[in-house]
Design goal:
The chain is an alpha+beta fold. Helix content is about 25%, strand content about 20%. The protein is built from 13 helices and 20 strands. The strands form 4 sheets. Strands 4, 11, 12, 13, 14, 17 and 18 form a 7-stranded antiparallel beta sheet that branches. The protein starts with 7 loop residues before the first strand and ends with a helix. The relative contact order is 0.20. The chain binds flavin-adenine dinucleotide (FAD).
Length: about 500
């Protein structure tokens, strides 16, 4: 190894990378962060171009499958990944990012916390994750600090939209008999009070794929704080392309530079991390298992709210929901209900069995009473895997699919939900769709903690067979519940970094 450039090199500045960096620099460790992106791509794209495309192509090619009925074009965030990371999809949309801040530039900011049942098979206890959840929540700011996913009666800090309020009231008035359906105010990583450099949510409702005044969490905000530390250095435009081990680890970047440290922390996102490890993992015929969440989008109409006025609020998820479909600990779906708010009109018009003009007129009439529910299944309902391309050794292909019998379970779920919609006074509209695997961008389970063999990692995310090489992104989560994943990725990265800092302190003394 060359003289070390830092105590730790973190690859990736998304939610996972920054969450690992804070505990390390607080412990006085020197951290060098490399990220493939910079600010340029994002600056060149204004917000509307980012979401809709330069000639509105995201509206025209709307395949109706994205969780929010539309995938943003987001060239600066999504396109480079597909081109440069060397990953393509086969029945799978390989969503990843090579932009500073990663996918947190466009995420929906809905938060979930795992419970003991969710992490039953993990080699860690819930208490250690819980203190990390708290630390991360304090740092990023969320719309409420109460975990509404486990106690359904908390009050939302930011006002709910009028239609969401109406639906929640109806739910509370007539709860489902068996208690298996839960509806609650969504928990979002959005500020209700201003913080230095970030404004509080001003309820303008134009927050689709990012808040211009910083109310929605984006890991770039954390980078500003990290950069104030003399222990932290961020190098942009450094796409890591290979990792080699000598006495420590050396990472080579696409521009020909190399950097060394005793430990490297991979936080490049599940697909980005797999791409980086291509040479180190014996990916054979079967491929590397990848968990992702099958996703359903269901448009809903609330007739009681037709022609009624709307309440100013944010346009992130208004309500969260969950529904059991079996007896197993992970047999439940999680979801969100969005008011249509500032979602692009054309996404809906495209789905109406009417011409464009009539569709628009109809939409204007019903917009205030329209909702979109997005439902996520747990990752065990997916069958996706990452394969090495035989012709170009550095390239990977993700093959997407669903677990056997999934379509039947999806139909059964739609049926179960129909009862709940009726109880809530909602009419499901035509256009419900199952997303192409990958589009959910909830990925996990490629290098699970606690698993033996070349694809497993320790409870500290250290790859078996590769001492000093740690992974902190979703790759190491042993399974994927249907809950929103990013808060857990961040908490787990925080937990691991605390452990690494403590281990180093212990070995130094
Ligand atoms: C449209 C959309 C909506 C979403 N909504 C939600 C939501 O509501 N709730 C939720 O919990 N999750 C949501 N997600 C998922 C969430 O964005 C991801 O879980 C989260 O961003 C993962 O964080 P990460 O740090 O692991 O990876 P990423 O965010 O992908 O960050 C990876 C970082 O690594 C860098 N990188 C990658 N490869 C290299 C390399 N070779 N060299 C150097 N740097 C590299 C990238 O530039 C990037 O900065 C959503 C995702 C999308 C796309």
């Amino acid at each position: 190894m060359n003289a070390p450039d830092a105590d730790f090199i973190i690859i990736g500045s998304g939610p996972a990378g920054v969450s690992a960096a804070f505990p390390l620099i607080a412990a006085g460790r020197r951290v060098l962060m490399l990220d493939a992106g910079d600010d340029l791509g994002l600056k060149e794209e204004n917000r509307s171009v980012r979401v809709l495309g330069s000639d509105l192509e995201s509206l025209r090619v709307d395949d109706g499958s994205s969780p929010k009925l539309q995938t943003p074009v987001s060239r600066g965030i999504l396109e480079r990944f597909q081109r440069d990371a060397g990953i393509s999809g086969d029945g799978f949309k390989p969503i990843g990012s090579l932009a500073r801040g990663g996918l947190s530039n466009i995420w929906g900011a809905q938060i979930s916390y795992l419970d003991a049942g969710d992490i039953d098979d993990w080699p860690i206890d819930l208490a250690s994750l819980q203190s990390s959840y708290e630390r991360v929540a304090q740092r990023i700011g969320i719309s409420t600090n109460a975990d509404l996913t486990t106690g359904a009666d908390g009050e939302a800090v930011l006002p709910l939209g009028a239609t969401a309020t109406h639906v929640l009231r109806r739910h509370k008035a007539a709860k489902p008999a068996d208690g298996s359906f839960r509806l609650f105010a969504a928990v979002n990583a959005i500020l209700s009070e201003a913080r230095p450099g970030r404004a509080a949510c001003d309820l303008r409702g134009d927050c689709l794929y990012g808040c211009p005044s910083g109310a929605i969490y984006n890991s770039r905000q954390d980078l500003l704080a990290l950069r104030k530390s003399p222990h932290f250095r961020l190098l942009d435009n450094r796409r890591a392309v290979s990792l080699t081990r000598d006495l420590g680890w050396t990472v080579k970047t696409a521009d020909g530079s190399s950097f060394s440290a005793p430990r490297i922390i991979l936080a490049a996102g599940v697909l980005g991390t797999a791409a980086l490890l291509t040479d180190l993992l014996p990916i054979g015929q079967q491929g590397l298992r990848l968990l992702n969440s099958p996703t359903l989008a269901i448009p809903l109409l609330s007739p009681a709210r037709l022609l009624r006025s709307t309440t100013p609020t944010h346009s992130l998820a208004q309500l969260g929901l969950s529904l059991r479909y079996g007896d197993g600990a992970s047999d439940y779906v999680t979801g969100a209900i969005y008011e249509v708010g500032s979602l692009p009109v054309q996404s809906f018009v495209n789905r109406m069995p009417l011409g464009r003009k009539a569709g628009r007129a109809a939409f204007e009439l019903i917009a205030g009473s329209l909702l979109v529910a997005t439902i996520y299944y747990p990752g065990d309902q997916s069958r996706s895997s990452i394969h090495r391309d035989a012709t170009a050794k550095k390239r990977l292909t993700v093959r997407g699919g669903f677990a056997e019998g999934f379509e039947i379970r999806a139909e059964a779920l739609k049926k179960a939900l129909r009862h709940e919609w009726k109880r809530l006074g909602l009419i499901p509209l035509p256009g419900a769709s199952l997303a192409e695997p990958g589009i959910d961008a909830h990925f996990a389970g490629t290098l699970p903690m606690g698993e033996a063999g070349p694809f497993g990692s320790s409870s500290d995310g250290e790859l078996n067979l590769h001492p000093g090489l740690h992974v902190v992104d979703g790759s190491i989560l042993p399974d994927l519940s249907s809950k929103y994943i990013t808060m857990t990725i961040m908490a787990n990265a925080d937990r691991i970094a605390h452990r690494l800092a403590a281990m180093e302190a212990a070995s130094a003394s």
